[in-house]
Task: structure prediction
Amino acid sequence: MSIEVKQRVSTNVMLLNRLQKMHCCSFALLFLSAIYTDTSYASEKKSANIYTYKSSAGVTSFSDIEPFDVAFSRYRFDCYACQVDSLIDWRQAKLYLQPYKNDINQAALKHGIDPAFVRAVIHAESHFNPQAISKQGAQGLMQLMPATARALGVKNSLSAQQNINGGVKHLARLLRKYNGNNNLAAAAYNAGEGAVKRHGGIPPYKETQVYVERVGILHYRYGRFSHVSN
Result:
């Protein structure tokens, strides 16, 4: 992220903290989403983190710098595996075999899909952060948009169990639609079914293309350890 963008984010966070003292948390989060959309385009969609924490006085604050020696939550504003210039070695990156193990396995069994594929999508979408919120408004482990969540019967997208159940249901429908083609299902999950239809396959968007590739790598790797995670 450029120095100019960092300065803009810092300025906006300072303003947010001032507003936070006068308004409720929900308004602050809406404001945060609005200002970050502007800075995200200025930084050509490169990633940034916003941290929320409570001060010793009990006041909820936001910062673009990771707080020191205090409990905090991190909000990601982009899809974890969508960064075109990511330096992560996806063939060597740490896997998460145990988090949400039962919820993933039960949902995958219920909807008849490979739990390793579910883990790959969760890893790609949120890096197993149940509180992740994107700049577009997608929420939770499987980054469900509010309208999608409602259609899937998910009342609270930040509930790991509800999010996984809804996300797996959606993913299973995509797999059925594309006759079990994981790449097309992943592309539709990322870019939307309309984009896949318009382009007759994986859309020519760099972010979607790297996303599909990385989900495939993660799927293969999680599949190798299915005896451990299941």
